[in-house]
Amino acid sequence: MAIVKMKHLRLVAMGSDRKRLLHLLQGMGCVEIDEPSVDPEDPVWASLSRPDSGELSDARERNSEAERAVAVLKRSAPEKSKMLQAKPDLTQDQLLDPQAAGQALVAAEEINGAERRINAIHSEQLKVESQKAALAPWLGLDLPLETGSGDQVTIQLGTLPGALPFEEAERAAAAAGELAQLTQVSADREARYCLLVCHASQSQAVLEALKDLGWSRANLRDWIGTAAENTARLDRELEALAGEKSRLEEKLAGMGGLRPALQQLADCTAAEVSREESRDRTLDTGVTFFLEGWIPAERWPELEQALEPYPCAFEATDPAPEEYAQVPVQLKNNWFTRPLNMVTEMYSLPAYGTVDPNPLMAPFFIFFYGFMMADMGYGLLMMLASVIVMKKAKPDGPTMRHMVPLLGLCGVSTFLMGMLTGGFFGDLLPQLAQMINPDTSFTAMPALFSPLDDALAVLIGSLAIGVAQIFTGMAVSMYRKIKGGEVMAALCNEGVWYLVFVLLAGGILAGQVKAALIAILVLLVLTQGYGKKGIVGKIMGIGGSLYNNVTGYFSDILSYSRLMALMLAGAVIAQVFNTLGALTGNVITFFIIAMVGNALNMALNLLGCYVHDMRLQCLEYFGRFYEDGGKPFRPLELNTKYYKVVK
What we know:
Blueprint: E1 2-3, E2 6-14, H1 18-28, E3 32-34, H2 43-46, H3 54-76, E4 89-91, H4 92-95, H5 98-135, E5 153-161, H6 166-176, E6 180-187, E7 191-199, H7 203-212, E8 216-217, H8 227-253, H9 259-279, E9 283-284, E10 288-296, H10 300-307, E11 312-317, E12 328-329, E13 331-332, H11 341-347, E14 349-350, H12 358-373, H13 376-392, H14 400-421, H15 428-436, H16 455-483, H17 487-510, H18 513-527, H19 534-559, H20 561-582, H21 587-625, E15 628-632, E16 644-646
Parallel strand pairs: 4-16, 12-15
Antiparallel strand pairs: 1-13, 2-10, 2-11, 3-10, 5-7, 5-8, 6-7, 9-10, 14-15
Helix pairs in contact: 1-9, 3-5, 3-9, 5-8, 5-9, 6-7, 12-14, 12-20, 12-21, 13-14, 15-20, 16-17, 16-19, 16-20, 16-21, 17-18, 20-21
């Protein structure tokens, strides 16, 4: 239960062995390959070069092809997946089998090619439909659309505004030229589609008259044949496109059996991308390559043994304190504290060389969560959900693998606190008993205390719990300072404030509050100027310490009143819904209303309790001792999406 000690790895090996070594490191999953810390001014390092990144681009393209094919099959050949289905198992050799990957890649290219053709067909269909729409107004015209004007006759197709009466346009054309005829082919709300035929000598005058009315020439010069003939041809094209699209969709629908192979290809190519990204962080000399990174000290003997068959030189050294900022952080915890990684990683990992907060936080976080939920029914559901998900789905994602066990642990705490408060879906059982038998003596569950009846006691208990956590944080801070040689700083800060609380409590219990306050004031004057220079500096240090610590401790302790508030709110909401159900006088309706209300209450509290619990840990607790800013340890390993790699 600590931060794993790391070693700084440097390795020089033959370039011909690089691919095999990267496979080895990925299979072991214990080395984070980092950017080399070289001096660019040094001529030795300056002579080294980066490997060609073309293979990385190819690997990313293959991974993209595989993921795209999986997505296509998800739409075109959906499968009925079981709820909470665990990932199927594969060995490393099966996952990285090049022959299977090659066959799956061919299938992926075929699937993606079919999908691209379907998209192209869809675009062509839209284009043809728009062409049909452009020809639709001219279907009544029995004249080839390519017919043009001659030396003696001007023929033109055009449109007029739909609001313009056709008779007005017809009169305007006749007035402008006696040898002109305007014929309406069709009309809609937007426009009138017309054919103009006139003698060439009068065409200019007629067209100017029509343009004054909004005449616009139709752009149909690229068509050959009548509108009806072209529409019939377009219909045949649409039919052929629809048939081809249907055949391709049917083909894709029948390729669902390739899904496992494509998912394996996606995981295989993702592993290849990781290797190539690590390869890009190495340096080449032409014959050899240089690799630098980090490895947990406990895994170093295993890696050292694995490297023996290769002609290479390597070293693993402990990082110096000035290197701590670059050292990646990995937490090592047991089954009880490991789920709290979710909280720690969401906040920030601890800096290397400091304290792992999980063992210090786990008891408080889990207890606080149960204190706020405090219901046996909710706790049972939480434990049941955690067990089922862990057993069926076997989550191994970065979040779910911590969240589900944490849900179970908090469920245990919720159940135990529910036993103390007598909560089982609120007061569901007493309400039900009174509905069945109004004269029953079962009016409440057995309880040590009730959030509704003993709210003041719950508030005092919440604040006492807060004091206990704050004292724990102060103790950890003192330990760190003393271990770092800052003994006086620890005694004059946390140590003195421990005494302040002890003196204040003793004075209240003994009835000597005045004497206790005098002793506290003398103690603070003697110690809170530590580290300040000059009389003015010491006076300002004393004043600042008094103000900051008094207000700080008061507000921090008061923050723990939210434990009581959430316990009380959850109990009241559950009781309200149970009462609403009981008002119906019908057992079935009572259960429906009570269960729906309790489901909403539980869902709200699951999130609300987590948020407030996390706030107490991150602000009130971590602020006492926690040093964040750690960089997560990300080794080269087989991170899979669809399969679980087993040894």
